Amino acid sequence: MSVALLWVVSPCDVSNGTSFMESVREGNRFFDSSRHRNLVSNERINRGGGKQTNNGRKFSVRSAILATPSGERTMTSEQMVYDVVLRQAALVKRQLGSTNELEVKPDIPIPGNLGSLSEAYDRCGEVCAEYAKTFNLGTMLMTPERRRAIWAIYVWCRRTDELVDGPNASYITPAALDRWENRLEDVFNGRPFDMLDGALSDTVSNFPVDIQPFRDMIEGMRMDLRKSRYKNFDELYLYCYYVAGTVGLMSVPIMGIAPESKATTESVYNAALALGIANQLTNILRDVGEDARRGRVYLPQDELAQAGLSDEDIFAGRVTDKWRIFMKKQIHRARKFFGEAEKGVTELSSASRFPVWASLVLYRKILDEIEANDYNNFTKRAYVSKSKKLIALPIAYAKSLVPPTKTVSLQR
Ligand SMILES: CC(C)=CCC/C(C)=C/CC/C(C)=C/CC/C(C)=C/[C@@H]1[C@@H](COP(=O)(O)OP(=O)(O)O)[C@]1(C)CC/C=C(\C)CC/C=C(\C)CCC=C(C)C
Ligand SMILES: [Mn+2]
Question: Does residue 192 lie within any of the structural domains?
Answer without folding.
Answer: yes
